[in-house]
Amino acid sequence: xxxxxxxxxxxxxxxxxxxxxxxxxxxxxxxxxxxxxxxxxxxxxxxxxxxxxxxxxxxxxxxxxxxxxxxxxxxxxxxxxxxxxxxxxxxxxxxxxxxxxxxxxxxxxxxxxxxxxxxxxxxxxxxxxxxxxxxxxxxxxxxxxxxxxxxxxxxxxxxxxxxxxxxxxxxxxxxxxxxxxxxxxxxxxxxxxxxxxxxxxxxxxxxxxxxxxxxxxxxxxxxxxxxxxxxxxxxxxxxxxxxxxxxxxxxxxxxxxxxxxxxxxxxxxxxxxxxxxxxxxxxxxxxxxxxxxxxxxxxxxxxxxxxxxxxxxxxxxxxxxxxxxxxxxxxxxxxxxxxxxxxxxxxxxxxxxxxxxxxxxxxxxxxxxxxxxxxxxxxxxxxxxxx
Length: 387
What we know:
- By secondary structure, the protein is α+β, with helices and mostly antiparallel strands.
- 33% of the residues lie in helices and 30% in strands.
- It is built from 10 helices and 19 strands.
- The strands form 3 sheets. Strands 1, 2, 8, 9, 10, 11, 17 and 18 form an 8-stranded mixed beta sheet that branches. An 8-stranded mixed beta sheet has the order 6-5-13-14-15-12-16-19, sandwiched between helices.
- Strand 5 and strand 6 form a beta hairpin.
- Helix 1 runs parallel beside helix 4.
- The N and C termini lie far apart (43 Å).
């Protein structure tokens, strides 16, 4: 079997892997992306894009098409028991992008894929699964199966695992993870936006006594609702558009129409961090390296910022023949992931049923924090200006 060669093999063609591939291609690096899926992605899944990610997107020309399709969220409003507790403005969150944007993940992936295809046509191999890695001093041999089940092989200067929380690359390296599972369970769904017209560009969080409901505007007049449903796995009838709509109405007064539901999912929260960012010429990024709570929408952005920091190191390594690991990169990205996880936990604390914070405590805390002159700092924290 003839072994093809490339500068970097990216395993995983989701949003993080596609972005890394596009960054490398724009830097003149020969890159290949292996993606296990053989069909185009569907569904909204992760939706939030923070200002640092938009800045990174601009470097390869994909910020403009993302913004053309996305909904721009300029403020968040905290409510409880029919009353507004406070407002968080994103006006000072970023000099370049004073907002957070929301867009369906499959639309983001399509834009990133187009950016990669334009810079490196044919770089993405769909239906291709990694099965083995053989590491050497100056290269890595990757073995896998193609769409028809036939063997494929590729020799790369570097391999990057961008293949998610159940990373095959991480498993092949023998890298373990540490972390914890959180007890709370959530149900989320997308509906035609039922909020008053004046609130349809706002992120809303209701921390009333029956449990938190968060919601975010989406393109095309839709809204995502995320509701805490307790500390057990949601029963089948709870992962139901009608049941979620009833929960939202009971807790917030909004009336989503179940007939307009376009996405529905139940999920639980996990926090995981890989013991190492990589071994030699094989590196982990995104959920393969660190998995955090989706509350606050930081996980996908964390992966993109991993890619933005790693890409120049890979380009230099391919150009000069030098090799990782890069201790400063690994230490920084692990520290950023820990901070993001702590911030996600703080978001859960404010909205959940944490010990010592009853309904009155949450209301007082949110009123106080959102009323301080320093609330702009909070907006920058939420928008990941530190990452």
